[in-house]
Design a protein that fits this description.
CATH class of the largest domain: Alpha Beta
Number of strands: 19
Oligomer: single chain
Radius of gyration: 26 Å
Number of domains: 2
Helix content: 25-40%
CATH topology of the largest domain: FAD/NAD(P)-binding domain
CATH superfamily of the largest domain: FAD/NAD(P)-binding domain
Structural class: alpha/beta
CATH architecture of the largest domain: 3-Layer(bba) Sandwich
Order of helices and strands: HEHEHEEEEEHEHEHEHEEEEEEHEEEH
Length: 335
């Protein structure tokens, strides 16, 4: 670290962004363009790192996650933002700001916080799922459906969303098998829907994924039966990566759809703690990259507006203290 950067870290920033993914970097660009001093603290472990490309992001379709992040980091730097590799461990409120304590003990002080730390995917405990995650073990058809179109695909049922996923992925392939695994038993209506759409149902517990030459070739059941597949769809449980927020008393909330836990916030990302915003998957569990980026932009605008209100109030207070006293008014004479 250069002496110049070390000196910069001692200032009180307008905003500290914790998390350097699409949401955090988009927010930092907006804040930098608003002439705010902003620092982005990032541990460098993006959720989508295993994926080959980002999709659904207009003009950036197919870009690798690493390239998207690198491009975003350059844009942040262009507008004066500071990028710092590190992990934020705790946050405490000071008299008029927040102190973010890093994993190496360094404190970063900022007037406002934006947390964009994403989420953790809790995957089914089936051999091979974690190893193939983001490659040919998938969960989002809008992220990966095109890439597996017309391929033999298996749906690994682990919860009440199994049938929904099967019907959803039917849009991309007609060669579809639903492995009921640990999902609830099908209702008569669900069985009829699957049959009508030509989706085969296989009962029994899935033991592992069969992989040959670094590609999934089949799904193996506990009885040893192997059913040929080229990709497998799972339904992870999404859990907000919110440990640093817990130090401020913010705890995750169960999602109404039962897909996991998120940090609740208003439409701009403002949490229950004044001065603390969230954006991206930490608060929107199903957000794609472009949606997360949009959330960062909205939060940045709200934060800047909040800082403007505070700056204005401080200016008014200072003006009232320092302005010259008004001369006594002399009553006008009457003739």
């Amino acid at each position: 670290m250069t002496r110049e950067v070390a000196e910069q870290l001692t200032q009180t920033f307008d905003v500290a962004v914790i998390g350097g993914g699409a949401a955090g970097l988009s927010a930092a660009v907006v804040l930098g363009r608003a002439r705010r001093s902003v620092i982005v603290i990032d541990a460098g472990s993006p959720r989508n790192a295993p994926a080959a490309g980002v999709h659904g992001f207009l003009s950036r379709d197919g870009i690798s996650p690493a390239e998207l992040i690198e491009t975003g980091r350059k844009e942040v730097g262009h507008y004066g933002g500071l990028l710092l590799h590190g992990e934020a461990r705790t946050v405490r409120r000071t008299a008029d700001a927040f102190a973010v304590i890093l994993d190496d003990g360094r404190p970063i002080t900022a007037r406002r916080l934006l947390v964009t730390t994403g989420l953790v995917d809790e995957l089914p405990d089936v051999a091979g799922v974690r190893q193939r995650w983001g490659r040919d073990v998938l969960h989002c058809p809008y992220c990966h459906g095109w890439e597996i179109r017309d391929e033999p695909v298996g749906i690994l049922g682990t919860g009440p969303w199994a049938v929904h996923q099967a019907l959803l992925f039917r849009q991309w392939t007609s060669d579809l098998v639903l492995f009921t695994h640990t999902a609830p038993a099908l209702t008569d209506e669900q069985a009829e829907q699957l049959a009508a759409r030509g989706i085969r149902v296989v009962t029994g517990i899935v033991d592992s994924l069969e992989v040959v030459d670094d590609r999934i070739t089949g799904v193996q059941l506990s009885d040893g039966t192997v059913i040929s597949r080229r990709a497998v769809v799972v339904s992870p449980r999404f859990v907000a990566s919110s440990q640093v927020l817990a130090t401020l008393g913010l705890q995750p909330t169960s999602h109404p759809l039962g897909v996991g836990e998120f940090i609740a916030a208003d439409p701009t990302g403002l949490t229950e703690v004044p001065g603390v915003w969230v954006a991206g998957n930490v608060t929107d569990l199903t957000a794609q990259v472009v949606t997360a980026a949009a959330g960062g932009v909205a939060a940045a605008a709200a934060i800047n507006a909040d800082l403007i209100a505070e700056d204005t109030q401080r200016a008014v207070t200072g003006y009232r203290i320092t302005r010259p006293a008004a001369p006594d008014r002399v009553p006008a004479s009457r003739s």
